[in-house]
């Protein structure tokens, strides 16, 4: 039946939390905890991926409510848009046997929602944060063609390996949808995310005095690749308070659709083969 087919399109993802080390230099270094005789029992947590459904409304809205850094935003409208196309493009992540939403990945066509309040607020916010020299290019990229908003949010402590199967699944769904629904024939994607900036002191080239250096730490593995491949990207200060030498930044990227294969390869290079093997096992 249809429900069985839908579950096959959103295979479960097996991940083991707690086996990975800290994030450094914008990349994740993964270390298996192989100490024998440990007092801690390692538990396997199965993250299942599903098509979004109405029961996920409140869980999804919690993820989307702060996309615009506390500015007025119709998060309910965007959540409705995610749910409305859930049988075509989109995935929510949950723990096996539970209903709590741990993440979401989808792409929403801007043309189809051009009159929606959330879309107008989103584009106004992004335009307002864009540095002056880039405004013309941003307007050109977002003002015409077939663009999509990538909605990619998940719990910050989830394994970074999940990025790859979620991205692969979304773009597989987009390619399938394009055969019957032309609104999914995108030429670019808008990504709005968050990152951390670490401030360090370093000497200048002549060894005189010290200057402050900035290092960006990406919360989601794919964001680093988005920025490397994007036709346009910029960051801006967020209103969140700094934490122990780290300050929050908003990150905006515009990725051309012809860079999707390079995106997937770049994410694979960061998170390693485990995510790919997990997806193959699930299939």
Q: Helix proportion of residues, in percent?
A: 25-40%
Task: Name the structural class.
Answer: alpha+beta
Low-confidence stretches: 1-38
Mean pLDDT: 81
Large-scale geometry: globular
Number of helices: 9
Number of strands: 11
Could you give a short account of the major beta sheet?
Answer: 9 strands, mixed
Radius of gyration based on Cα positions: 20 Å
Kindly, what is the distance between the CA atoms of the first and last residues, rounded to a whole number of angstroms? 19 Å
The sequence of SSEs as H and E is HEEEEHHEEHHEHEEHEEHH
Query: In what range is the share of β-strand residues?
Result: 25-35%
Can you put this structure into words, describing what you see?
The chain has 283 residues and is an alpha+beta fold. 34% of the residues lie in helices and 27% in strands. The protein contains nine helices and eleven strands. The strands form two sheets. Strands 1, 4, 5, 6, 7, 8, 9, 10 and 11 form a nine-stranded mixed β-sheet that branches. It has a two-stranded antiparallel ribbon with strand order 2-3. The longest helix has 16 residues, at 163-178. The radius of gyration is 20 Å and the shape is globular.
Strand and helix map with partners:
Elements: H1 2-9, E1 13-15, E2 23-24, E3 27-28, E4 45-50, H2 57-64, H3 75-84, E5 91-95, E6 103-109, H4 117-129, H5 135-143, E7 147-154, H6 163-178, E8 188-203, E9 210-218, H7 221-229, E10 232-237, E11 246-256, H8 260-271, H9 273-282
Parallel strand pairs: 7-8
Antiparallel strand pairs: 1-4, 2-3, 4-5, 5-6, 6-7, 8-9, 8-11, 10-11
């Amino acid at each position: 039946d249809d429900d069985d087919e839908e579950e096959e399109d959103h295979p479960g993802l097996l991940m083991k939390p707690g086996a990975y080390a800290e994030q450094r230099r914008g990349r994740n270094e993964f270390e298996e905890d192989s100490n024998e005789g440990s007092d801690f029992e390692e538990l396997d947590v199965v993250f299942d991926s599903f098509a979004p459904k109405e029961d996920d409304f409140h869980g999804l809205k919690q993820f989307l409510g702060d996309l615009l850094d506390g500015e007025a935003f119709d998060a309910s409208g965007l959540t409705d848009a995610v749910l409305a196309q859930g049988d075509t493009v989109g995935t929510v992540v949950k723990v096996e046997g539970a209903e709590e939403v741990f993440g979401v990945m989808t792409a929403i066509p801007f043309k189809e929602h051009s009159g929606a309040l959330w879309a107008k607020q989103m584009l106004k916010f992004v335009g307002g944060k864009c540095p002056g020299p880039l405004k013309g290019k941003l307007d050109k990229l977002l003002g015409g063609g077939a663009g999509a908003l990538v909605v990619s949010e998940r719990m910050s402590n989830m394994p970074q390996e999940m990025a790859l199967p979620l991205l692969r699944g979304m773009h597989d769904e987009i390619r399938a949808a394009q055969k019957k629904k032309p609104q999914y024939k995108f030429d670019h994607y808008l990504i709005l995310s968050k990152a951390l900036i670490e401030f360090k002191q370093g000497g200048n080239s002549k060894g005189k005095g010290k200057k402050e250096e900035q290092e960006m730490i990406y919360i989601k593995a794919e964001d680093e690749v988005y920025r490397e491949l994007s036709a346009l990207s910029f960051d801006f200060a967020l209103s969140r308070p700094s934490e122990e030498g780290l300050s929050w930044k908003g990150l905006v990227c515009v990725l051309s659709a012809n860079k999707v294969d390079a995106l997937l390869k770049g994410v694979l290079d960061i998170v390693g083969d485990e995510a790919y093997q997990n997806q193959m096992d699930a299939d």
